[in-house]
Amino acid sequence: MIQIDNIDSLKPLNLFQNAYKEALEAGQKNIEAACLSTVSESNNPHSRFINIKYINPSEFIFFSNFLSPKGQHINHNNNVALTFFWNEANIQIRVEGVISRLDDIRSDLHWSGRLQSKNALAISSRQSSLVKSYEDILSNYDNCIKTKDLSKRPSYWGGLVIEPSYFEFWQGHKSRLNKRDLYQFKEGVWNHSILQP
């Protein structure tokens, strides 16, 4: 579940919240999953699913290892894209914006509310690095559980904040006359357009 707070003042996020509720009521599984797209230093696109944890009036927030490939891509290019697809409600939402690190206070607060097992995994894993065997992963994790202070968030792990400047809401229909609403933030104002199917 995503925690969505205080978004009444921003029309695209109001629409996001309404779509989220519709998908949730329809029984959508993994509703917090979104495909995050980044660009590497070689200008190649890379996509993977992440879990959005919080949404507020100007931010989508998730958590990750800053030293991972996605972290390196973000350091190189802070323009990113998110895509949500909720098949139970036949809704797709595309979001584009710039990404930055969440402040330490909020990252620490989120860390302190997580299960110790999740924190042990975050500490023990060098995310996406090569390893000799799966047994080594299990061994590193077990050693971390036994020897590390799991209450302290490591500096290489924390929140990442996407500040959106683009929303596209796609509502699918059996007729294929799909409804597409575009919102772009320009000069302090959200501008609305309709796109052809």
User: What radius of gyration results from the CA coordinates?
Assistant: 19 Å
The secondary-structure class comes to alpha+beta
Strand coverage percent: 35-45%
CATH class: Mainly Beta
The tally of structural domains comes to 1
Helix content: 25-40%
Dominant shape? elongated
Number of helices: 5
Q: Give the beta-strand count.
A: 10
CATH architecture: Roll
The overall pLDDT, averaged over residues, is 94
**Unreliable runs, pLDDT <50, ≥5 residues?**
none
Q: What is the fourth-level CATH superfamily? A: Electron Transport, Fmn-binding Protein, Chain A
What's the helix-strand series? EHEEEEHEEHHHEEE
Distance from first to last alpha carbon: 30 Å
Biggest pleated sheet: 10 strands, mixed
CATH fold label = Pnp Oxidase, Chain A
Short description:
The chain has a single domain (3-112, 155-195), classed as Electron Transport, Fmn-binding Protein, Chain A (Pnp Oxidase, Chain A), CATH 2.30.110.10. It is built from five helices and ten strands; from the N terminus they run βαββββαββαααβββ. The protein has helices spanning 11-25, 69-76, 104-112, 116-124, 134-147; strands spanning 3-4, 33-39, 45-51, 54-56, 59-65, 79-86, 91-101, 157-171, 179-186, 189-195.
